[in-house]
Amino acid sequence: MPGMLEAQRDYVLRTVEERGIRLVRLWFTDVLGNLKSFAISPAELENALNDGMSFDGSSIDGYGRVQEADVLALPDPNTFEVLPWVDSKAAEARVFCDIAQLDGTPFEGDPRQVLRRNLDAARKLGFVFYVAPDVEYFYFAPPGDGRPTPLDNGGFFDLTTTDIASSLRKETIRTLETMSIPVEYSFHEDSPSQHEIDLRHTDALAMADSVMTFR
What we know:
Structural class: alpha+beta
Distance between the termini: 30 Å
Radius of gyration: 19 Å
Shape: globular
CATH class of the largest domain: Alpha Beta
Number of helices: 5
Order of helices and strands: HEEHEEEEHEEHEEEH
CATH architecture of the largest domain: Roll
Largest sheet: 6 strands, mixed
Strand content: 25-35%
């Protein structure tokens, strides 16, 4: 395992150099499931992978009080991906982080650490937890006056191949697969402008990262 981790770190550093990555975004979540992030330069990445990056966690919901503010973001190199929606001339990447105390012990309020602890407990009992979520959402026209405006009037399983909402769903799938998130299938849901994309099953920790990326 240490050898595999070292190989993945080398891959991350090599990819950042070869792709001309300008910023690496460190992603994590608060206890409410909101995505949080701060960016580092490529010059800081090797140190971050080895030792983590400290930051003030007192303003993050559930992370601590002001007098015990600083925590460590420990990048998980297995979650490294280049962000496909950013112009390649100013390329960016992201990596999910585990949150730890400054002494390196896992921070108990980190949702990713909580999930990992429970998965480890299940594994000791002989169980492996796989997840295959059905992600449903709506597309709306740009905000204007009045109520939200749907982009289509389709219904369940309707074949709507030429409207903008179906094009957006296709683009969403392409983006997910570019980021190594496999899609099982997709379709129009029951309500106007309601769509569903089903992700192919994988272990719960990887899927949690995938759903946060999807959002």
